[in-house]
Amino acid sequence: MAPYASDDRTTAEPAGDPGPGRRRAARYVVPVTVMGVAAATIGLVPAIASSGDPDLPDITAAQLIEKIAKSDVEQLSGTVKVTTDLGLPDLGGLESSLTSGALGQGGDGSSADPSAKLTELASGTHTLRVAADGPERQKLSLLDGSDEYSLIHNGKNVWGYDSKSNEVFHGTVDEPAGDRGEHQPPATPKDFAEEALKSVDDTTSVTVDGTAQVAGRDAYKLVVKPRQSGSTVGAISIAVDHETGLPLKFTLTPASGGAAVVDVGFTKVSFDRPAASTFDFTPPKGAKVTEEGALEKEAERHAGKDSERPGKAPKSEEDLGKGLDGMKVLGEGWNSVATFDTGGPGLPAGGTGSDLDGFLGSLGDRVKGDFGTGTVFSTRLVNALITEDGTVYVGAVTKDHLVKTADGAK
Questions:
Q1: Is the distance from CB of 78 to CB of 130 less than 8 angstroms?
Q2: What is the per-residue pLDDT across 321-377, written as a single tens digit (0 to 9) for each?
Q3: Domain total for the chain?
Q4: Tens of pLDDT, residues 201-231
């Protein structure tokens, strides 16, 4: 089926301002960590996998984005398939160790803590079961063979349960999940679409490219592409349910082509209200239960031990956050680059012959410019430059554009 509308950029204002409808719809599922900076800079494969090409009324890109914004779905259940391929190097378990260290748990944290457990979605293919009944009740389960990890929000309580270790995490919230700043990374096509549509401006092409059928539902295909050169983003494709306006599928590929970087879509979906018992949870007999505050105290205890070691300077969260407080954004649109000072010495410039130098050299590319010397670390979507003096430049841009931006900042 031919596209319904060519380039249509009259939607920049509603896409940039989520409005009550979009904020309301965003509450329907417990968020999960899939990836960080890539969430707002997504791409597409040209055609969404479908089992049909439904004949739907013509619609413009502006009307379709407005349809997404007005979507008020709050009750649903279904299955979501998530595939992520950032092209990260195989660090042989080092990644999980670094994650544990970054959380300050020193290996003593709970395996049911969502901030650690759900980082598994950053790579590979995973199946999720989701259910929601308004802003107060959501459940997400990560399936892994016979094992299952569930994250449940019911009223003021948030429960995480890891069946493999029989461990439970418990926390509380004062506001609905959709209104809270923490634990809010994307998990479903709706979450990703909301972030992606914030990028719609004069640097962006927006079209409607026919129809598809996703999870047995008829949908329109919205395509968003950067106009600028220098971005690693290819385009965005979002399958939008023609009845409810809910995004059903979302696919990301880089400008370099190849397999999708992120592919998130419903394989089954129902808009019936889930049974109230879906959101009930009682810790199983014999399960180890960890309260949210206990993890914070454990992190503080390990931070105190580190500060007592010879040659170890104490570092508080405030110290580590100083660089991010001074973050600046260089450039505009899809070519935006974030930069901040870590407050540390940065990375060695190379040529020292040390084991660390060799390890870093195997992971990144040494570069030089007006900014000095540094190392560029690359994924299929995001490039990051860390200079010898501790300055970081990161964006969904090519390595050449990143180095050029760093040169221009000096």
A1: yes
A2: 555 567 899 998 889 999 998 876 655 555 444 555 555 556 789 999 999 999 999
A3: 2
A4: 788 889 999 999 999 999 999 988 898 899 9
Beta carbons of 267 and 72 less than 8 angstroms apart? no
Q: Please tell me whether residues 100 and 176 are part of one structural domain.
A: yes
284/253 Cα distance (integer angstroms): 42
- Nearest-angstrom CA–CA distance, 346 and 350: 12
pLDDT value of residue 110 = 79
Rounded Cα–Cα distance for residues 318 and 324 (Å): 10
Please tell me whether residues 152 and 272 are part of one structural domain.
Answer: yes
Tokens at residue 300, please? 């503080």
Residues 346 and 254 in one domain: no
Residues 109 and 233 in one domain: yes
Same domain, 272 and 343: no
Helix residue ranges, H only, 309-398: 317-325, 355-363
Tokens representing 173 are 């919230």
Q: Tell me, yes or no, whether 307 lies in a domain.
A: no
Q: Are strands 288-291 and 328-330 parallel, antiparallel or unpaired?
A: unpaired
Question: Domain of 114: which CATH number?
Answer: 2.50.20.10
Give the pairing type, strands 167-172 and 288-291.
parallel
Residues 383, 317 contacting (CB under 8 angstroms): no
Q: What is the model's pLDDT at position 72?
A: 92
Q: What angle do CA 244, 83, 246 make, to 5 degrees?
A: 5
Within 10 angstroms of residue 254's Cβ, the number of other Cβ atoms is 26
Here the tokens at position 221 are 């295909």
**What is the rounded CA–CA span in Å between residue 108 and residue 397?**
38
Q: How far apart are CA 155 and CA 166, in angstroms?
A: 23
Q: Distance between CA 160 and CA 141 in Å, rounded?
A: 10
Alpha helices in 205-316 (DSSP H): 292-308
Whether 269 and 330 share a structural domain: no
Q: Quickly state the pLDDT bin for 145 (edges 50, 70, 90).
A: confident
Residue 182 lies inside a defined structural domain of this protein: yes
Instruction: Give the Cα separation of 231 and 121 in Å (integer).
Output: 24
The answer to whether residue 377 is domain-embedded is: yes
Domain that residue 31 falls in: 12-279
Cα separation, 206 vs 236, whole angstroms: 9
Alpha helices, DSSP H, located in 157-316: 189-197, 292-308
**Tokens 């800079």, located at residue:** 41
**First-last CA distance in the chain:** 50
CB 116 within 8 A of CB 104: no
